[in-house]
Amino acid sequence: MTDTLTAPSGESAVLESVPRGFLAHDWQPATGGRTFEVRNPATEEVIATVADCGAQDALKALDAAAAAADRWAFTSPRGRATVLHRITAAMTEHRERLARIITLEIGKTITEARGEVDYAAAYFRWYAEEAVRQHARSTPSPDGRSHIVTVAEPVGPCLLITPWNVPLAMAARKVAAALAAGCTAVLKPAALTPLSSLVLGELAREAGAPAGVLTVITSSDAAAVTTALLADPRLRKLSFTGSTPVGRLLLQQSGARVLRTSMELGGNAPFLVFDDADLDLAVREAMIAKMRLGGQSCVGANRFLVQEQIADAFAAAMAERMAATRVGPPGREDTELGPLADHRAVDKVRHLVEDAVARGAVVIGKADVPDGPGHYAAPTVLDHVPADAAIMHEEVFGPVAAIHRFATEAEAIAVANNTEHGLASYVMTSHIDRARRVAARLQAGMVGINRGLVSEVAAPFGGVKQSGLGREGGPEGLHEYQQLKYLSIPGFNT
């Protein structure tokens, strides 16, 4: 079934392929036929209307997840892996379709959107392989009177809440791990970007995921949906990716029922460039760390801390690269940066730049943006940004590189750690001893050393301090959806 969608010529076919309604036991409309609009941030036009689920619909999705829970939990690891491998194949087959949908719903360049589909498929491949490699422990007790056996079991039905900036890959990272562990899942995508998740639900069903193993609910009222689900005793796990303030609220609600939680929250990543760094490498990796997803990434470089001796050269090179960025329609193959998510994102970027300039920062590089509609923000480099500027303390979530100069290693570490967040950090240096020393002192869950990209399906993704709890990706991501059971068995000396 397809929804009633409108789109410019050439895009209708891919949009009309998006499933209608929300997925519980089957596809169905929201109560009362309620819908909400999805807009293309590049044109500001409505491209879809999707089901606007409320609390009653959310509980229908959980009904399906709870009904399927035992069957899926006792499906063999190989059986679960087979389904995940099929989802991987389906995503690969539908790569261009999914990429076009991502581009339309969030304005990501088509090149990056294709990369996101590949990244999402890689999570299903990774967890298909992990599903059959779950480890437990078996050992005699010290006194020999018993044998200790530990068993990893699925925690039960899960609620997975995903963000708008990486809509398909973040859904894949959660869904693949949950399903591999034997959990059923209710997926709630962001209201800005529901379309790719709806297609994921469709592909999972076609790949053989039994009804209820993955349900998908779309809603413009996240609070109503999550409150109803978190209060239901059948739900046993919450995984959330989003802002720290929302994460705090969800932790409070989850605490009432002692739910297992995973939280991947806000970031304020520092990018440290020392005077012994390879300048060309530092600039190349800085552009990756800053401009990936148009700067709308929780692990994106937020603050560029550059040692004084290399700062002029680094700033000039960054300004040249940033000013040359091709900004335009995200569906064009040569576009390097599309629009931001909405007008609020553009307004925030403008405010942070104006605040920094008012405090003494200097704009040294700025690209042009298209005239007309679309939520475009100009790629910008700010130099001599003072420590008290708002941009040094708030996530930018946009294409602005703020350069702050430092004198000593100790000063750089102090500035880098002067934040409530601790998701990712980056270190550029040619000395391995300095790299290890600085990485050890940075308060972050992930550190990129001479690399501007840390995301990897086989690695644990997550932060410290107020950047969250738990890890996603790697074998550690599977453990987030499992609980240990200890079996005490009579030993040889009884």
Model description:
This protein has 494 residues and is α/β, with parallel strands linked by helices. Helix content is 39%, strand content 19%. The protein has helices spanning 12-16, 55-73, 77-93, 95-106, 110-131, 167-181, 195-206, 222-230, 244-255, 279-291, 308-323, 343-358, 409-417, 432-441, 474-479, and strands spanning 22-23, 27-28, 35-39, 46-51, 138-140, 146-154, 158-161, 185-188, 214-216, 237-241, 260-264, 269-273, 301-307, 362-366, 380-383, 400-406, 424-428, 446-449, 468-469, 482-490. It starts with 11 loop residues before the first helix and ends with a strand.
Alpha-beta content class: alpha/beta
- Helix percentage: 25-40%
Round the Cα radius of gyration to an integer and report it.
23 Å
User: What are the segments in which pLDDT stays under 50 over at least 5 consecutive residues?
Assistant: 1-9
Main sheet specs: 7 strands, mixed
With strands numbered from the N-terminus, the spatial order across the biggest sheet is 14-15-16-13-12-17-18
Number of strands: 20
Helix count from the secondary structure assignment: 15
Mean of residue pLDDT? 95
SS strand fraction: 15-25%
Distance between the termini: 63 Å
Shape: globular
Name the features.
494 residues; alpha/beta; 7-stranded mixed sheet; 6-stranded mixed sheet; globular
In summary, what is this structure?
This protein has 15 helices and 20 strands.
